[in-house]
Each structure stands twice: as structure tokens, then as C-alpha cells.
Amino acid sequence: MEFIIIIIRIYEIILLLRIILSWIQPNPNNKYLGWIYIVTEPILAPIRKILPLSFGSIDFSPIVVFIILDVFKRILNGFI
């Protein structure tokens, strides 16, 4: 169980890096940063489809993912 929590924390860091990258907008073809998009997009894309489109250019899907991951970590901590 602790291993899963560590994996979730690493994913949260990667997600945070993606958020920061969206602010600075580096070259999307950068081979060193492309893996961040490959790892995070499969989780973010379905949530973007669920969220209403009335938010304009602000992407709230990472916040929703952070909330889901936090709930999942709390559930796992209850079992430890």
C-alpha cells in the first residue's frame, strides 16, 4: 500500500510539472518534456470531456485529478 502512495505522490509531482509547463509553454516537440504529456494526458483528457466548457481557457482538470488522487490516498491510508 505504501508503494502505491509513493507512486501517487510521484504522479502528483509530474502533474504539477505539467501545470508549470503550461504557463511557460515550451516547445511541444521537446523530446525531454514530451514524456510528461504522455504520462498525464490519459488521465486529464477524460476529465476535460466531463467538465463543462464554460470556463474559458482555464483548465480545471488537473485540480480535479489532484482531488481524486487525494481521496484515493486517504482511502489507502485508512487501510494501512
In the residues, how many domains can be counted?
Answer: 1
Succession of helices and strands: HHH
Q: CA-to-CA gap between the ends? A: 7 Å
How much beta, percentage-wise? under 5%
Round the Cα radius of gyration to an integer and report it: 14 Å
As a percent range, the share of helical residues equals over 70%
What is the SS-derived class?
mainly alpha
Low-confidence stretches: none
Description:
It is a single chain. The chain is mainly α. The protein has one domain. It is 74% helix and 0% strand. The protein contains three helices and no strands. α1 packs antiparallel against α3 and α2 (34-50) packs across α3 (61-79). The longest helix is centred in the first third of the chain and has 23 residues, at 2-24. The radius of gyration is 14 Å and the shape is globular. The model has no long low-confidence stretch (mean pLDDT 88).
